[in-house]
Amino acid sequence: MSGERAVTEATRNFGKVAVLMGGPSAEREISLLSGNAVLAALRSQGVDAHAFDPAERPVWALAEEGFNRAFITLHGRFGEDGTVQGALQVMKIPFTGSGVMASAIAMDKWRTKLVWLAAGVPTPAYRMLVPGCDYASVIDELGLPLIIKPAREGSSLGVTKVRNAAEFAAAFEAAHRLDPLVIAEQFVSGQEMTAAVLGDKALPLVRIEPLKGEYDYQNKYFTDDVRYHCPAGIAPEIEEAIQSDALKAFQVLGCRGWGRADLILREDGSYSFLEMNTAPGMTGHSLVPMAARTAGLGFEQLCLDILEQASLD
């Protein structure tokens, strides 16, 4: 069988595929980058894929226009919080990634922590913040530095590292402008890592090394001031333990399809999980494609594998 025919055989059952990108969230810019990369990859493999931006067209047009599957590359609210997943379920259009419940929980860092702590998944100590709360008591409990962030945003939006008490109020306001739910989290010193999950397997870990400043929104997507190491270059037994716990962290939230856990590895070999991403980035700087490449999976095949797992469950 020729390569062209093999591609046709492998993709003919996908039907008309919508690549959902853009959307109304604060992460729209990154979503468009991810979506266009996925769109190009699917089309290169013979998939009848089309861009669909829910910020520009009503989502029910997916049913009206006869789409058979949806590849979700929406990031942040509406894309990762269960909202669009619920709409797709109503329209009976199978979609990639986690379902309504898991998406909603994983988008909320507070409720993710509640589940993880109940299941024994290691995660940093935290406090929820409200306007006028006693900042001094939070600092006494969590220590300095600490991290303040919106509970339901991604891509490091609204995240501040607070090094002294004088920085607390401004950090809270920056997070609160994006989300009324604000979380203060104990700062964990160590190496930043990600553990991607594809189906029921954890992919090789990626170790992140910012060369300048923090691993923030700008460095994540728009600079080359970060080094990524995959293989991560850590002890095999530690990598295996992290991969095992990453799968656990993924499964106890009810996630399916694919995702990416972010974590910190301390010098003593212990680690703490920070969050679970249920629609990770697929840009040129993104970490799931990097981990997949190390596992022998090219970007086009990764996209096909994710699309293959599209479901209504």
UniProtKB/TrEMBL annotation:
What are the protein's GO molecular function terms?
D-alanine-D-alanine ligase activity
Cofactors that this protein relies on: Mn(2+); Mg(2+)
SUPFAM superfamilies, A to Z: Glutathione synthetase ATP-binding domain-like (SSF56059), PreATP-grasp domain (SSF52440)
What EC class does the entry list?
A: ligase
Give the record's pathway.
Cell wall biogenesis; peptidoglycan biosynthesis
Grouped into one coarse class, the protein's main location is cytoplasm
Nucleotide-binding found in the keyword field = yes
Q: Could you tell me which Gene3D superfamilies the record lists for this protein?
A: 3.40.50.20, ATP-grasp fold, A domain (3.30.1490.20), ATP-grasp fold, B domain (3.30.470.20)
* Domain ATP-grasp residue range list: 113-308
Q: Which reaction does it catalyse?
A: 2 D-alanine + ATP = D-alanyl-D-alanine + ADP + phosphate + H(+)
Write out the entry's keywords from A to Z.
ATP-binding, Cell shape, Cell wall biogenesis/degradation, Cytoplasm, Ligase, Nucleotide-binding, Peptidoglycan synthesis
Q: State where the protein is found.
A: Cytoplasm
Task: Give the EC number(s) under which this enzyme is classified.
Answer: 6.3.2.4
Q: Which InterPro entries match?
A: ATP-grasp (IPR011761), ATP_grasp_subdomain_1 (IPR013815), D-Ala_lig_Van_CS (IPR000291), D_ala_D_ala (IPR005905), Dala_Dala_lig_C (IPR011095), Dala_Dala_lig_N (IPR011127), PreATP-grasp_dom_sf (IPR016185)
What's its job? Cell wall formation.
| Family indicated by similarity | Belongs to the D-alanine--D-alanine ligase family.
Q: Which NCBIfam families would you find in this protein's record? A: D_ala_D_alaTIGR, PRK01372.1
Q: What is this protein called?
A: D-alanine--D-alanine ligase
Q: Which organism is it from?
A: Uliginosibacterium paludis
